[in-house]
Amino acid sequence: MYKILQKYFGYTSFYPLQEEIIKEVQRQRDTFVLMPTGGGKSLCYQLPAILFDSLTVVISPLIALMKDQVDGLLANGVPATFINSSLSYKEINVRRRSLSKNEIKILYIAPERLVMPEFLQFLQGLKVSLFAIDESHCISEWGHDFRPEYRQLKLLKDRFPGAPIMALTATATPVVQEDIITQLKLSDCKVFKASFNRGNLYYQIKLKDEPYHQILQYLEGRKNDSGIIYCQSRKTVESLAASLQTAGYRALPYHAGLSAEVRTESQEQFIHENVEIMVATIAFGMGIDKPNVRYVIHYDLPKSIEGYSQETGRAGRDGLKSDCILFFSYADRVKIEYFIEQKKDENERQVAYKQLRELVNYCESNVCRRKLLLDYFGERFDEPNCGSCDVCLEPKERFDGTIATQKILSCVYRIGERFGINYVIDVLQGSKKNKKVLQNRHDMVRTYGVGKEYSKSQWQSFIRELIQLGYLRQEGDKYPVLKLNKKSWEVLLRTERVFLAKAEEPHYIPPSETGEVYNRALFELLRSLRKTLADQEAVPPYVIFHDTSLKEMSTYYPRNLQDFRRINGVGERKSDKYGDVFLKEIIGYCKQYNIAPKQAIHKRRELPKKQMKSSTVQETLALHKQRLTINEIAQKRGLALSTIVSHLEKLILDGEDVSLDNIVDREKQERIRRSLKELGVKVLSPVKEKLGNDYSYGEIRLVRAKMMCEAK
Hints:
This protein is an alpha/beta fold. Helices cover about 45% and strands about 10% of the residues. The strands form four sheets. A seven-stranded parallel beta sheet has the order 3-4-2-5-6-1-7, with helices on both faces. It has a six-stranded parallel beta sheet with strand order 8-13-12-9-11-10. Helix 19 packs across helix 21 and helix 23 packs across helix 25. The longest helix has 21 residues. The two termini are about 35 Å apart.
């Protein structure tokens, strides 16, 4: 297994779960694989296919993805092919003959072709070792991308009883998982769920305010980076792509209104790096296996968290730092509600409203974006600070919101738990404009007018946070009403305090830089060489080498084939085919600039979570090591004090040697430690209240980080 991994794929270690999945497949057992985009799903069936004597059939709904996967396998020396509607009758016959002679290890086909009686009969005449069903969530009506043709795949168990089935997907809720297993009749199926935590992705919600100029501001200095900008309408796609072209960016539009030929050509231009930006509706992306997409921007609100997760998952598939930015506005929400109302099926409408509410809650949340995404897919994330989302990098100050919470909960109770957020706020603020409040005689309840100290938007923020914290629940989809629960009564009976985020407009935090230490000039030279070779071979550049491989070459400067083979992603076939030409470029560059090779590297694939610290954080560390105070660092860097605290907190949690003695007086450190031990480390507001105004939240956070590191 490890020899094949190194020989064909150029790695010496697996991503989490890959080895266990491959061993299960070798035992001829059915498997269900839930793995995020970029988590290494394809290797789970590609590697055992090489080990098996006979054929592995991969069922995929995407013609473009089939070609990409086959190109990549052929480049690695693995005999693979696809059969789909893009081929002529003659080409299909040639490939069928190769299959009959057992010359092919992996065959990619679409579900529609598999169930054609004639093709099914042909396939039954071959020996099949494994069926791998990619995008298997398409089989479930509960999924976000249901495709009726997938339903017919249940015949595999009857027609090929000896061949195990592997169902793979990057996005499936627990309900969808169960449905997939049932529909495919997977017997005694082992379920593998990789972590959905994409540590290299930075999540940010940005209030939508002149979004075109906001995008231009972001793209400054990123002209060579590949990115996708998702829009809701075809009209927006066309106008934004045209505006970006006028501004000097290589951008193309992509939507279902364009002809199939134009869409295919645009996709090829993007994959082959002839353009950097695709401005698209959600029609784009399912067949994209491009690993170096550095950013995904949602110009408009997506339709669901599942869709958002899949779309943002197209960023950073190579494990390098990438940005996911969503522009949020209430106008977009209203637009989606309008489209939902056009649906004729009542059940469809209810599901769509539920999905929209979950997405809006995500956008408006004061809770870590990563935690909410992982919670949605049934995965716990208990880290106090993920270090890579806008909420964690610029946390809002919290206050004792127990009284405000009691007012909200009491109001919900007194009006019978029958109304939504805005109605409750109207009662709290003593609205005389809401006729319904007066008609229902809710101007007579005790909580009428008791909430005039906060604005409507502040009350909205508090209520949404209480829902996320579990002190309130919502029922209903189109017009959700607020309901109390057990936790609500714990607050109402004055046995529990609640700490809420101060409801202020969040500051804009520019997405963090990668802070990578490779030679950028050499990387661009190697990227240009890769593009030339890719054009000659008519394959996407990443089929030659991924950016991760080029960056390693630009870091370690290999001078011979032995060192070149130590680069991650360089297998035997690629070393033999491309080694000399890449080494010539590297050696020539090193001679020109008198660069010595670095110490030989150990070929080991880093796990996605091990990301390099951003350069902005490293800059803070360098100034800290010069024994500057936090105030001095903030002043020197022109950043907010809270941002510098966040940097130092992240450095401490990452195991860096950060001394607090120059930041927090030792006596204060001891007192903070005692208070944290007494009151707990989860919520800092009670600790701050106990310690008094002489202690800042920043000091408490840094001491807490030290304590957490010592406890590991």
